[in-house]
Amino acid sequence: MTARSVPASCEVLVVGAGPAGSACAQMLARAGFDAVLCDQHDFPRDKVCGDGLIPDAHRALARLGVLDDVLAHARSARHVGCIAPHGARVEVPARLAVLPRRELDDIVRRSALAAGARWLAPARFDAPLLDAGGRVAGATLRLADGSLHDLRARWTVLATGAAAVPLIAAGVCVRRAPSGFALRGYVRNEAMAARITGLEVVWHRALRSGYGWIFPCGAGMFNVGVGITHGQDQDRGQAARPELNLRELFAAFTRLHAPARELLQGGTQLGALKGAPLRCSLEGARWSRPGLLVAGEAAGSTYLFTGEGIGKALETGMLAAEALVEGGEDAAVRSRYEAALAALKPRFAAYAQANRINEHPWMADLVIWRARRSAHIVGRLAGVLEETHNPGKLVSPRGLARLILPLG
Ligand SMILES: Cc1cc2nc3c(=O)[nH]c(=O)nc-3n(C[C@H](O)[C@H](O)[C@H](O)COP(=O)(O)OP(=O)(O)OC[C@H]3O[C@@H](n4cnc5c(N)ncnc54)[C@H](O)[C@@H]3O)c2cc1C
């Protein structure tokens, strides 16, 4: 894109073309808004992720009208195998799919452009533009040739993911440290394709504070990774655990979990292992300031327990668009959006409570041991994935007591 073809103004500037930003831009464009969607990278681009799509992502993608397209490219699965530290395993049924983010994000982004959003990349958000009253009135963007360009907008949506730098530049960062980190690699091993057909999630003492996963992407390719999350005490505690530790965890995971070991030993690793931060529990940033809404993982929209965030990023992007489409004064738009996020907060709190399983892997032993003997508990686990069952209740003192007591 040349400097001359860069737009000077628009109604809404959406910064970041991950799930949150593209969902927001699509909804705005569909409602007739002049929206510019920009990203620091040209697309398609890679994004460090497990690439797993759980039911909330299916629902959000359906609302955006792209689910069929996504599923046509994705590897679908009907269950996730939950594996306890002592090796017990239970299959939890769910609507699941795996699609590398390079493809997924481009499908959602293209749907925004097809709806009428304008595309600007590479264009990195450098700083907000402020009007005389201090209201955000667009952004200064750094273009590919290094030049700075002011793009005026009535509203700006910041959907820049888990990086702290844009949040700080936008004046909305409350906590610089992320809620956790995760690392993944791709492995090709065609011989294992028939053996690992569902998603696998593994808890183990050696992976304490997190878990390991194997997600089949199709055509003999697997996304293998480990993640760790911290409670709510990041700034006081262990937030700055470096990526180095994750590499050690990854090595431990691929030693202790036989399928992961076999995948790597008999397969070919595609590209380097890559890590990235997670921002969870709708914490760590202000959700808005005059002229600006914060959506997706920038607003902490990833679940602490599972590290799953694609579905909620899509949802919060759509909520931001809905608040803007309804219109009105600045304060009305912001309070509508903040109320919508606040309504999601109890769910995030439940997933934060369930994070106790990651912190105390023996709980996974207990839950999975009981689930193997009870279709009712398997149903509750499926309900956690479908978001019809509160995961916090499973690990509350009462929930644990009920697991220990014989079931009716
Ligand atoms: C290793 C790992 C595994 C994960 N596995 C899963 C999983 O299996 N399933 C799941 O649901 N979730 C998973 N997550 C979480 C998921 O990746 C995030 O929740 C999701 O990507 C958030 O979407 P988003 O649109 O908010 O941000 P992002 O997807 O991060 O998109 C942000 C976009 O903003 C752009 N950007 C950033 N800064 C700037 C800037 N200054 N200017 C312009 N553009 C900018 C970026 O280039 C990017 O395109 C995982 C995360 C990690 C790290």
Question: Would you write up a description of this structure?
Answer:
The chain is an alpha/beta fold. The chain folds into three domains: 3-50 and 103-177 and 281-354, FAD/NAD(P)-binding domain; 76-99 and 179-278, D-Amino Acid Oxidase, Chain A, domain 2; 361-404, no CATH class. It has 14 helices and 16 strands. Helix 2 (55-63) runs parallel beside helix 8 (310-326), helix 6 crosses helix 7 (258-266) and helix 8 runs antiparallel to helix 9 (330-354). The structure holds flavin-adenine dinucleotide. The site of flavin-adenine dinucleotide has 42 residues, from helix 1, strand 7, strand 10, strand 13 and strand 14.
| CATH H level, superfamily name of the largest domain | FAD/NAD(P)-binding domain
Biggest sheet details: 8 strands, mixed
- CATH class wording of the largest domain: Alpha Beta
Identify every distinct bound molecule in the structure, by name, code or SMILES: flavin-adenine dinucleotide
Q: What is the helix content?
A: 25-40%
Structural class: alpha/beta
Mean pLDDT across every amino acid position: 93
Distance between the termini: 65 Å
Q: Give the overall shape, derived from the CA principal axes.
A: globular
Radius of gyration: 21 Å
CATH level-3 fold name of the largest domain: FAD/NAD(P)-binding domain
Number of helices: 14
Q: Which terms would index this structure?
A:
alpha/beta, eight-stranded mixed beta sheet, FAD/NAD(P)-binding domain, 408 residues, 14 helices, D-Amino Acid Oxidase, Chain A, domain 2, binds flavin-adenine dinucleotide, single chain
